[in-house]
Amino acid sequence: MMKKFMITMLLLLSFNLLRAQDNDRDNIETVIITYIENFFRNDYNNMEKCLHDRLSKRGLDKQGVLSEDFSKEDLKAMMANKKPLPATQQSNRVSEISIDRNFASAVLDTGYPSTRWKEHIHLAKINGVWIIMDVFWNFY
After folding, report:
1. Is 56 helix (H, G, I), strand (E, B) or coil?
2. Do 79 and 101 touch, CB atoms closer than 8 A?
3. Are 73 and 61 in contact (CB under 8 A)?
4. How far is CA 41 from the centre of its chain?
5. Nearest in space to 33 (alpha carbons), one of 76, 95, 91, 92
6. What is the pLDDT of residues 103-129, one digit of tens each?
7. Which of 71, 85, 139, 88 is nearest to 109 (CA)?
8. Rounded to whole angstroms, what are the CA distances from 52 to 56, 71, 89?
9. Residue 30, SS3?
10. What does the alpha-carbon distance between residue 120 and residue 95 come to, in Å, rounded to a whole number?
11. Per-residue model confidence (pLDDT) at position 20
12. What is the helix (H) or strand (E) element at residue 32, kind and residue range?
């Protein structure tokens, strides 16, 4: 009888952990899509909600040269000077979500119709909310 009880408890615990992780995956994907869609729309105020204050963003250009670091303020300045891309012309896909307690990583396939890149994104769950800490991109 005790063995059946323990097995039942383990199954319930496993089910709850899987359900919580699925919820985290959905939240992580939502944060990443919100970030990138608002980046392309030049909507800094909505994008900024997804980013930690100490965000670091950098990447490799098409020649493989490492870019300068971009802070949230640098992104805001860049967005003020670029042409917006409507959501209907965007193609963004989140994959490879990996979660370890309050840390996660994911890959975002994104870009403009003529230039595509991958962003490797690290997130932290702070006070119950997933937020982007670090972004590293690489052009195809």
Report:
1. strand
2. no
3. no
4. 17
5. 92
6. 999 999 999 988 999 999 999 999 999
7. 139
8. 9, 10, 27
9. helix
10. 10
11. 54
12. helix 2-41
